[in-house]
Amino acid sequence: MIRLSAAALAALLAIAIPGNAQDRPAEPADYRTEDYRAPVPTTLAGARVLSTEEAEAIWREKSGSFIDVLPRAPRPANLPAGTVWRDKPRHDIPGSIWLPDTGYGGLAPSTEDYLKRGLVHASGGNTATLLVIYCQENCWMSWNAAKRALSYGYRNVAWYPDGTDGWGRALLPLAPAEPEPRAGEEK
Fold it and tell me: In what order do the strands lie in the sheet with 157-159?
């Protein structure tokens, strides 16, 4: 049997596991507006950055509202009549609300309003409510949305950068999700 010292094991893990802090970009001053599926920073000024274990504890204690911001592919406008369109299924952390398309760097006024209304719904209108914002691993959408929530005056924002990928790797439950309705839509 091979025995490794703690230092040797740490060195091996640093080499073997991608996405170490030294491979992460610095936190930008503004929103990310391109290349959304890329390594993300390890920080978000004003927000708490959560590990999967921390996110799980908040979820189990029901001490925060979980918000998924993963985009949703729109139905193509040029589909021939009679063509069946099936959305790609989305699975979320159970109890989450899904506010698709709200993590882009620039938001149309209607999308920004959708995000603001979704945050009010998730927080019950209380800006001190813990909001846990996520999407997938290496996805700037959640970083942008969490930064935007801070700009709206929410004081207890947590960003979960591993999102549903990290949650699933930890063998934690995921549940089918439907997006929160937009203005004029029914649930």
Answer: 48-49, 157-159, 131-134, 65-68, 97-98
Name the one residue in this structure whose structure tokens are 């709206």. 152
Task: Write down the pTM of the prediction.
Answer: 0.85
Which tokens is 160 given?
Answer: 């979960």
Contacts of residue 61, defined as CB under 8 A and 6 or more positions apart, other chains included, come to: none
CA proximity to 106, closest of 47, 179, 30: 30
Distance CA 4, CA 176 (A): 43
d(CA 50, CA 143): 12
pLDDT in tens, 21-77: 568 999 999 999 999 999 999 999 999 999 999 999 999 999 999 999 999 887 788
Cα–Cα distance for residue pair 156/159, rounded to 1 Å: 10
